[in-house]
Design brief:
- This protein folds into two domains: about 240 residues, 3-Deoxy-D-manno-octulosonic-acid transferase, N-terminal domain (Rossmann fold); about 190 residues, 3-Layer(aba) Sandwich (Rossmann fold), CATH 3.40.50.2000.
- By secondary structure, it is of the alpha/beta class.
- It is about 40% helix and about 10% strand.
């Protein structure tokens, strides 16, 4: 196993944020790098994983009968038919981004790597992530589903692609895949890594069996110093683990004629009325948001809402809530058929039942609420709203974005509320004060500007794994 040692490691050309020391040499077995994962441990994991899949089948069937259509197993068991790059000149990068949030976060890094379409592969786990990846990268990458985590199946995928490196976005730790990659000497790099409070507590219970797999990761590029310290405590090699910042701060929204036309269409639909955009909402949250919306409309009768559930397949459930409250509504998928935008029957609420269009619609907002935070889900990304300089409201449950929210709170760039009652009060204050809205939006833009740079630091690390002649 010598493929890793064929590349000469170069020191990273910029320090990790909050991380002292120089970048380590790339590990390899011939240079004192990690030893293979014990065969017995891999076999035990494979058995447990297989049993887990079998036990999960009834739940999968139950969800299917309730209308949820999970990704078929066959799509996660068919290696992509692609011509492998020669072993002596690996130039291909495989990026794994589990779902929508990870796909969006990896966009600026993919732009920075500037790979040809034959050099880039992108996998996802969820169907919504797959659709977004195909929309964003269909002309720039081979796109497929990530394999089920059997080592023999992961080896088949890796042999088919023969990548120079696999970039795993955030903290997707798949032991079977890691063991297969180590066996084939394919470097695995964790990018934009984070360990939430919930994940840390869960991983700590399995720290001993998890540790050998974490030690196989070639580099771990973590979002914050706390994330770095946590994953080192779980077992990663400290010399290969750095805090480089959060890729999400490097977010930019390029031109898109279709999305720009959609924004104009919705603006025409709502006219000059103020718009409250509620993004990435979760089950149990829409009830509270709609109650606050009805209350605020007593004082601001022209207020309109764009309600974007995290999972668009819930749109029928949400329209049911709207009918119960007597609120005129329209699904985005029916928008093109809605002709009379100036009539009194125009909708009070637009339900966004599509994927990949929310970010552009934040531009229309007078105020933004970012969901998954009034219920104990952990919150969602606030960067897209901050990019447009919008005043942002979030609920108390933002533990999945703990560091980011703390930065925004300390910078006066977000308002965090305890419950739906406080949400309504804060919304009323913001709708009534241009000064308050401008102040929050201005601070949000400043924080984005001050925290950029993670993409460049991560790209320099990834570049070390690519053949020097990749651009030729």
């Amino acid at each position: 196993m010598t493929a890793l040692t064929k590349h000469v490691a170069r020191p990273a050309r910029g320090p990790g944020r909050g991380d002292a020391g120089t970048a380590p040499e790339r590990p390899g077995r011939g240079s004192g790098g990690p030893t293979p994962v014990p065969t017995l441990l891999t076999a035990a994991y494979t058995l447990a994983y297989t049993l887990g899949l079998i036990l999960w089948l009834p739940f999968r069937l139950f969800r299917y009968l309730r209308g949820h259509r999970p990704v078929p197993f066959r799509k996660r068991m068919t290696a992509p038919g692609i011509c492998p790059s020669p072993p002596c000149a690996r130039t291909r990068v495989w990026v794994h981004a589990v779902s929508v949030g990870e796909v969006n976060s990896i966009r600026p890094l993919i732009d920075a790597l500037n790979l040809k379409s034959s050099q880039l592969c992108v996998s996802t786990t969820t169907e919504t992530g797959q659709r977004l990846a195909r929309r964003l990268f269909r002309d720039r990458a081979r796109i497929f589903y990530f394999p089920l985590d059997w080592p023999w199946l992961c080896r088949r995928y890796l042999q088919s692609l023969n990548p120079a490196a696999v970039l795993v976005v955030e903290t997707e730790i798949w032991p079977g895949f890691i063991a297969a990659a180590r066996e084939l000497d394919v470097p695995v790099v964790l990018v934009n890594g984070r360990i939430s409070d919930r994940s840390f507590a869960r991983y700590r219970r399995f720290r001993r069996p998890l540790r050998p797999f974490l030690r196989q990761l070639d580099r771990l590029c973590m979002q914050s110093v706390q994330d770095r310290d946590r994953i080192v405590e779980l077992g990663s090699v400290a010399s290969r683990t750095r805090s480089v910042g959060n890729l999400k701060y490097d977010y930019s929204l390029g031109p898109n004629a279709g999305q720009a036309a959609l924004a104009r269409r919705i603006r025409s639909l709502f006219g000059a009325d103020p718009v409250w955009v509620c993004g990435s909402t979760r089950e149990g949250e829409e009830d509270q948001l709609l109650d606050a919306f009805r209350e605020i409309r007593r004082e601001f009768p022209g207020l309109r809402m764009v309600l974007a559930p995290r999972h668009p397949h819930r749109s029928d459930e949400i329209t049911g809530l709207l009918r119960q409250r007597g609120l005129a509504h329209l699904k985005r998928s029916s928008l093109n058929g809605f002709q009379d935008a100036g009539s009194p029957a125009r909708p009070e609420v637009l339900v966004l039942d599509t994927i990949g269009e929310l970010a552009r619609l934040y531009e229309l907002a007078r105020v933004v609420f970012v969901g998954g935070s009034l219920v104990a889900w952990g919150g969602h990304n606030i960067i897209e709203a901050a990019y447009f300089g919008k005043p942002i409201l979030v609920g108390p449950h933002m533990h999945n974005f703990r560091e980011m929210v703390r930065t925004f709170l300390e910078g006066g760039a977000v308002l965090q509320v305890r419950d739906s009652r406080e949400l309504a009060r804060r919304l009323r204050e913001l709708l009534g004060s241009d000064t308050a809205r401008r102040g929050l939006g201005r601070n949000a833009r400043r924080i984005l500007r001050d925290n950029r740079g993670a993409v460049g630091r991560t790209a320099r690390i990834v570049d070390e794994y690519l053949d020097p002649g990749r651009g030729s």
